[in-house]
Amino acid sequence: MKLSIVPSHVAIILDGNGRWASKRGLPRSQGHYQGGQNLFTITKEIRKLGVQKLTVFAFSTENWKRPKEEVDYLMTKPIEIFETRKEELDHQVKFIGRRDRLPQGMLDLINDIEKRSEQFDDSFVLYVAIDYGGLEELVHVAQNKEVKDIESFKLALMQPHDVDLLIRTGGEIRISNFLLAQSAYAEFYFTKTSWPAFSKKELFKALKVFEKRQRRFGGL
Asked: Rg for the chain (alpha carbons), in Å?
């Protein structure tokens, strides 16, 4: 697989886990489990293609409204998944979003992953957005007295890097409060394929579409 143009920063809304499971007669939790496993797979593939930054939307500020059983699963299962695959970690991982509402087990996992990944250079960084909301992020930036211009505004964001390509899986055509400022000039790619089924082939298809886009940034 070869690309003439590779986006520096890709963002993905990991959607469709529950629907993927329901269509197969499985509990929604099984969809989240498969989605978690697929994050390892797609991260490896996206690195091979030369992308430098990947930001994924794992849990939004609005996802707390979901049934308690599902929220509890999302706050505990990643711990088990990482424990079985932690030896595969070979790049930097950073988390963005609120941490004051996360359970202690999830906080311990975040701290462990970030500490383990500090040893690696920044040629590739995976950012995981958990308890993150774009509007809430903008409110915090608006309250920052150090923000004087666009440059200082971007540096005050949880994710200071502009998005080149934003992908949403699962069939919905909206960005759901994800990286609002960072996606000002992003190219968007929506696919009906659910996140657990989003394969290397689907990823390459999205990047080929990006390759054909003409990015003018307001110019001609």
From this structure: 17
Pairing of strands 165-168, 187-190: parallel
Which amino acid does the sequence have at 3?
L
Contact (Cβ atoms closer than 8 angstroms) between residue 21 and residue 30: yes
Residues 6+ apart with CB under 8 A from 30: 21, 24
Report the phi/psi class of residue 51: left, alpha or beta, with left for phi > 0 and alpha for psi in -120 to 50.
beta
CB 76 within 8 A of CB 39: no
**Percentage of the chain lying above the pLDDT 70 cut:** 99
pTM of the model: 0.95
* Dihedral in degrees, nearest 10, Cα atoms 79, 13, 114, 162: 180
Catalytic residue among 15, 38, 131, 164, which? 15
The single residue of 63, 112, 162, 177 carrying the catalytic annotation is 63
Element (H, E) at 97: none
Contact 94, 114 (CB under 8 A): yes
Phi, psi of 115 (to 5 degrees): -65, -45
Check pLDDT > 90 for residue 1.
no
Which whole-number Å values give the CA distances from 162 to 7, 83, 91, 184, in the listed order?
A: 11, 32, 20, 8
Measured from the Cβ of residue 211, the count of other Cβ atoms closer than 10 Å reads 14
How far is 180 from 54, CA to CA, in rounded Å?
16
Cα distance between residue 210 and residue 205, in whole Å: 9
Is 15 a known active-site residue? yes
* Residue 177 is among the residues annotated as catalytic for this protein: no
